Each structure stands twice: as C-alpha cells, then as structure tokens.
Amino acid sequence: NGLLAGKNILVMGVANDRSIAWAIAQSLAAQGARLAFTYESERVEERVRKLADTIPGSIILPCNVTVDEEIDSLVSQLKEQYGVLHGLVHSIAFAKTEELEGMFADTSRAGFALAHDISAYSLTAVAQRVYPLMTEGGSIMTMTYLGAERALRNYNVMGVAKAALEASVRYLAADLGQFNVRVNAISAGPIRTLAAKGIKDFNSILRQVEERAPLRRTTEVAEVGDTAMFLMSHLSRGITGEIIYVDNGYNIVG
Ligand code: 0WD
C-alpha cells in the first residue's frame, strides 16, 4: 500500500540518523517503497545497518562512489536482488574542511578535483549504470544548495561542485528522458547534519534563514523527505531537469 508500493529505490548517502538521506528513506518507506541503502566504508557500515534494520525488507550494500568497480558491483547486486529499479536518491557530497573557509581563490587542484569527483561526477557515474535497470521508467534525484548559484561565504568549492551537479541534472534529464527516466534535484535550506558541521558559521546561516525566509523558519529534514517522496512517485511524472527549492522560500528573498 502507498504511493510507492512495488517500487525499488536505491538510497545513497545515509551516514547517521541526521542525514538527509535518512529522512528521505523514512518518507519513502511510509509510502511502501522497498529500499536498498549504500554505505561508503566499513567505518559507517554498522551504523547504516542498524538504521536499515528498522525498515523491514530493506537491504544494505557497500559503495564508495569514487571507485567505478564498487558502483559496478553495486549495480550487479541490485540487478540480482531486484531485477527492476524504479528510483535513485543521491545524497552525497564531500570537500576537505580546509576548502570550506577563507577564500575560494585559494582552492587547491586536489581539493577542487576531490569535491567535484564525489559531489558532482558521482551522480553521473551512478546514473549511467542504473538507468538500464529502470525498465519500467524511473526517477533519479540529488541534493543541492543555493551556493551553486550565489557566492555564499565559506561554501566555496562546494558551491562550484553544486553548480556542476545542477548542470549534470539537466544534461542527464535530456539524455534519459527517452527511456522514461526523470532526473531532478532538491535545493534544500541549511539543515544541521554531519556535512553541515564542516561549514564555518553554520549557526549564523540558520539565524539568517529564520529572520528572512518567507515562512520565518529553517528547513526540517522531513520537508525534504516528503518532497523527495513526491519526486520518486507518479505524482511528479511531468517534472524533469528541475531544481526544486525546499527552503521555506529563502531563495526568493535572500
Ligand atoms: O544543510 C545541509 N545539510 C544541506 C545539505 C543543504 C543542502 C544540500 N545538502 C546536501 C549535501 O551537500 C549532500 O549532497 O545534501 C546531501 C546530504 O548531506 P547531509 O545529509 O547534510 O550530510 P551527511 O549526513 O554527512 O551525508 C553525506 C554523506 C557522507 O557522510 P560523511 O559525513 O561521512 O562524509 O555522503 C556520503 C557519506 O555517507 N559520502 C559518500 N558516499 C559514498 N562514497 C562518499 C563517497 N566517497 N563521500 C561522502
């Protein structure tokens, strides 16, 4: 039962119970989706397994997105277990903390490459391998932030990587539409997670949102989860290549 009954969805990017991917998983599970979670390394395996165990019928598989062979083996296991895949939730990003303060102008070649590899290219690396499993049509989504469009203090190289990610969403949507696969992104307002810890002055960013966002509050993860559920469902069938803001309106006033 539910809007996602009978759908198999891959969720990448759960690190702990505060992760946006975890809130998305809750919303998807509530609508009857069958979920496969990935974990980046043994370091987080136990934590992800414990979380996944709370959602009956879900499975967990390893995948560090910087390694092509790991994505290949993920996809072959999904093919074996599910046959057909209906959705992909990509909620992964990384940059070295030293690149997330001071001037963007100081970004190193290695820091730039790493941030783009994990935060932008990984969407394409996974999408190019999973869309052939989406034989009944599919929905792919990723997570982005306003720093893709505006030069926000301290967001630096991650903003440049998010701009590449958002452009990737449009190009992937253009390519995969012929296979009835949609590709979109959610641009979320700031949420206190592990990844957010890396961003300097995060508290003042939250305060600014509370003061200026039209709805006068910060974004709750469940708001992102429910929009992700909509994007994974038939309800959003006419939407592809879009960046959808779930930020209580902050981007329109900034
Ligand atoms: O305010 C926020 N928290 C916002 C986050 C606002 C708008 C967008 N986002 C985005 C982030 O940029 C990211 O794309 O949402 C996505 C999810 O972020 P999150 O939920 O805030 O952060 P977190 O719980 O840390 O999940 C990101 C995870 C990694 O966690 P850690 O903290 O261990 O790096 O991405 C995963 C990992 O689980 N990840 C990887 N997965 C596979 N392979 C890799 C990798 N190489 N690197 C990081």
Each distinct ligand: ligand 0WD
The major sheet is characterized as: 7 strands, parallel
Q: Can you tell me the residue ranges where pLDDT is under 50 for at least 5 consecutive residues?
A: none
Q: Tell me the radius of gyration.
A: 17 Å
Order of helices and strands: EHEHEHEHEHEHHHEH
**Please, how many domains?**
1
CATH superfamily: NAD(P)-binding Rossmann-like Domain
Q: How much helicity do the residues have?
A: 40-55%
- By CATH reckoning, the class would read Alpha Beta
Total strands: the figure is: 7
Look at the structure and give the mean pLDDT.
Answer: 97
CATH topology (level 3) name: Rossmann fold
Task: Please count the helical segments.
Answer: 9
Question: What do you see in this structure?
Answer:
The chain has helices spanning 20-30, 42-52, 68-82, 109-130, 156-176, 194-197, 202-212, 221-232, 250-253; strands at residues 8-12, 34-39, 59-62, 87-90, 138-144, 181-188, 243-246. The protein is an alpha/beta fold and 254 residues long. It has one domain (8-253): Rossmann fold (3-Layer(aba) Sandwich), CATH 3.40.50.720. The mean pLDDT is 97. It contains nine helices and seven strands, in the order E-H-E-H-E-H-E-H-E-H-E-H-H-H-E-H.
Summarize the structure.
The chain is of the alpha/beta class and 254 residues long. It has helices spanning 20-30, 42-52, 68-82, 109-130, 156-176, 194-197, 202-212, 221-232, 250-253; strands at 8-12, 34-39, 59-62, 87-90, 138-144, 181-188, 243-246.
